[in-house]
Amino acid sequence: MQPFFLQLKLILPLCCVSLIWLVSTSFSLGVCQQQSSRQFRPLSVPALKKTIKQLKPINELLGEPQPGQWLAQQKESGQSFSEYLRSRPLTLTPARHTLYVQPIGNFNPSQQEIIKLSSEYLSIYFSCPVKILDPQSEDEIPATAKRIHPTQGNHQLLTSHLLEKQLAPKLPPNAFALIAFTASDLWPGDGWNFVFGYASFRERVGVWSLSRFGDPASDPESFRRCLERTCKLATHETGHMFSIKHCTRYACNMQGSNSLQESDSQPVHLCPECHAKIIFATQADPVKRIDNLISFSHRHGLKQEIEFLQKAKKILDD
Ligand SMILES: [Zn+2]
Ligand SMILES: [Zn+2]
């Protein structure tokens, strides 16, 4: 078994891959959609570059990374909005405009609610429909793709099987991406202990686990923390599917993370450069998006986000 930090070092790059989701409480087919009938004219690239300058003052620049943090171990150069544009990024298109969520296995009522709310958050964050598919039973997964961890004793599912056999063949034609969620733990193969998630950008499919985000049924704060972690993971990984690289300059949801502790210290909101990328990729109305994020954050206790979002809204409103 590898040392813990090595597990994380190897694991997190994989976490930086894909994703989405949701689920109605009953796990029936559901759709969340924002801005279905907008009159908004998408911002031009010059207008987006102007918003970067306007939003800069309210954003926190990163200092030197501390030992053990992502940037202390990974040499990444970051990605400006201009560099992002030159990379010919994947964006929503008239043909591929919906995020699909595939629940796999059993979820308790609190976990079902976490998935439902996270899907709503994804829909706001990326200003697109999120569609929840009927759940798949773990009975459909062969024994060769399941195991009990040899020392930790927890039930795990094999990520490569889920991506290649369960998800990729079912990618809907109008899907921007298909993301699976499971309450079971995940492992990617021999030599690995676990991963939080795994995805294929090329195939536009991913799978993510709630199993290490705490028990949302234990008390209200545990529910809030699990929701915040799930929303953060879902939006970070989906951001990668939109061709956004890790952020190295600002406190931002697109920072890399070496551990749950480091991820907990990072915001859910985006820095000005990544904000411009998302608005470009989704053609969203940035003011309406922020209004919806503020409303969600108030309703579900994401208090740390509200002050920043209100400052951003004031700037974007002017
Ligand atoms: Zn990442
Ligand atoms: Zn950023």
How does this structure look, described?
- It is globular and about 55 Å long.
- It has helices at about 5-15, 45-55, 70-75, 80-85, 110-125, 160-165, 220-240, 260-265, 270-280, 285-300, 305-315; strands at about 30, 100-105, 130, 145-150, 155-160, 175-180, 185, 195-200, 205-210.
- Helices cover about 40% and strands about 15% of the residues.
- It has one domain (about 5-35, about 45-315): Collagenase (Catalytic Domain) (3-Layer(aba) Sandwich), CATH 3.40.390.
- The protein has a six-stranded mixed beta sheet with strand order 1-3-2-6-9-8, sandwiched between helices. A three-stranded mixed beta sheet has the order 4-5-7.
- The model is unreliable at about 1-40 (pLDDT under 50).
- The protein binds zinc ion (2 copies).
- One zinc ion binds near residues 252 and 274.
